[in-house]
Design a protein that fits this description.
By secondary structure, the protein is of the alpha/beta class. The protein has helices at residues 11-23, 34-43, 60-70, 85-94, 106-120, 153-164, 172-180, 189-202; strands spanning 2-7, 26-31, 48-52, 54-55, 58-59, 76-81, 98-102, 127-130, 133-136, 141-144, 147-149, 170-171, 209-212, 216-219. The longest helix has 15 residues, at 106-120. Keywords: DNA-binding, Phosphoprotein, Transcription, Transcription regulation, Two-component regulatory system.
Length: 223
């Protein structure tokens, strides 16, 4: 399923786009204000962003610039009425990947979205999200609110296991076996406790990393 954020203040247009794309196996979250999308982006980044050029609280180009500074890989498409298309071309050159002029056929918008995702390779199965945390397996990188964090190998492997099993409890035994024993390195239980403590500190004490007393740990969205 393709995860898409859509900024649109026209409820009729937003509902039509949402219903059509959801039939095409998209998960669409609609925002009537740029501020709402900005807040959501801090917690979780989708596969693609649709931005209406003119919104009640600003222009899409403003949010696009903010977004590009934090997640330059995230594909963005501007939606605009024909009279604004000249300005949108400028915005497109400054950061968006494509733009579509209103009124548009839903089939055309869908095909442009798929073409962009194929071009940028952003249908990501190797990218995990939980609250404001992102783990990118392709880059072997971890981000918090767009800021890249430096983790040790055991810390990264623990977080990866928890992210892969988001919503499920991973036992301490499983973590010890998969992170250390698989490499032929036996460690005691206290090593895991210390590593988790260091991981929490580097992740800025995230509420989404929960301790399940006497069992293990679980990643779980809280926002």
């Amino acid at each position: 399923m393709i995860d898409l954020y859509y900024a649109e203040d026209d409820e009729t247009v937003a509902q039509a786009v949402k219903e059509y794309l959801e039939q095409e196996n998209f998960r669409v979250t609609v925002f009537s204000m740029l501020a709402g999308m900005k807040q959501a982006l801090r917690s979780r980044q989708p596969d693609l962003v649709l931005l209406d050029w003119n919104m009640p609280d600003g222009q899409g180009s403003e949010l696009c610039g903010w977004l590009r500074a934090r997640w330059p890989w995230l594909p963005v498409i501007f939606l605009t009425v024909r009279g604004d298309s000249h300005d949108v071309v400028g915005g497109f050159q400054k950061g968006a990947d494509d733009y579509v002029v209103k009124p548009f056929e839903l089939e055309v918008l869908h095909s442009r979205i798929l073409a962009l995702l194929r071009r940028t390779g952003q249908v990501k199965v190797n990218c995990y999200h939980c609250d404001s945390l992102t783990l990118d397996m392709d880059k072997m990188s971890v981000f918090c609110d767009g800021e890249e964090l430096v983790l040790s190998q055991p810390e990264y492997q623990i977080l990866l296991l928890l992210m892969e099993n988001k919503g499920k409890t991973v036992t301490r035994k499983q973590l010890l076996e998969k992170v250390w024993d698989s490499n032929g390195n036996y460690v005691n239980d206290n090593t895991l406790t210390v590593t988790i403590k260091r991981l929490r500190a580097k992740l800025h004490q995230p509420a989404c990393l929960k301790t399940i007393r006497s069992f293990g740990y679980r990643m779980e969205d809280t926002l």
